[in-house]
Amino acid sequence: MKGLTPFNRKSSLRKTGGFEDFYNMLDDFFTSPLSTGRSLMEESFKLDIKDKEDKYVVEADLPGVKKEEINLKLDDGRLTISIERKEEEEKKEKDYLHRERKYSSMSRSIYLGDVKDEDVSAKLDDGVLCIEIPKDEEKEKTKNIPIE
């Protein structure tokens, strides 16, 4: 049996031109194993969210990230974890100069609902960021309206 290949708009039975060739080029670019593009999963970080009785516990896997590179923000029940890294490297040897600069950033936001803004704690330990966010008292979701 021949190897299976993903479907794209190419067909050896017909000749195409114009936009059809453009679509084929896009299909090949995004499905080719040799493409240098990165997937979203590689550019993000993993999150675990635990719902405890009195708090939420959020754990983010951030190997190699320093706490100075992390920014945490809690805004109206929405937790945002942002990371910004800047790296510069310079090597000088006999006849050449090697210089590299890299900048990368990533961010994740999650909506937790009714949480308290105070008493939030965060700790980075062995590449795992653990954030504890206390829940606000449960507000009654339904309200009876008296009729006059």
From TrEMBL:
Transmembrane segments: none annotated. SUPFAM superfamilies: HSP20-like chaperones. InterPro entries: A-crystallin/Hsp20_dom (IPR002068), HSP20-like_chaperone (IPR008978), Small_HSP (IPR031107). It holds the Pfam family HSP20. It comes from the Bacteria. Residues 36-148 form the SHSP domain. Gene3D superfamilies: 2.60.40.790. Belongs to the small heat shock protein (HSP20) family. This is Hsp20/alpha crystallin family protein. It comes from Anaerosalibacter bizertensis. The lineage of its organism: Bacteria, Bacillati, Bacillota, Tissierellia, Tissierellales.
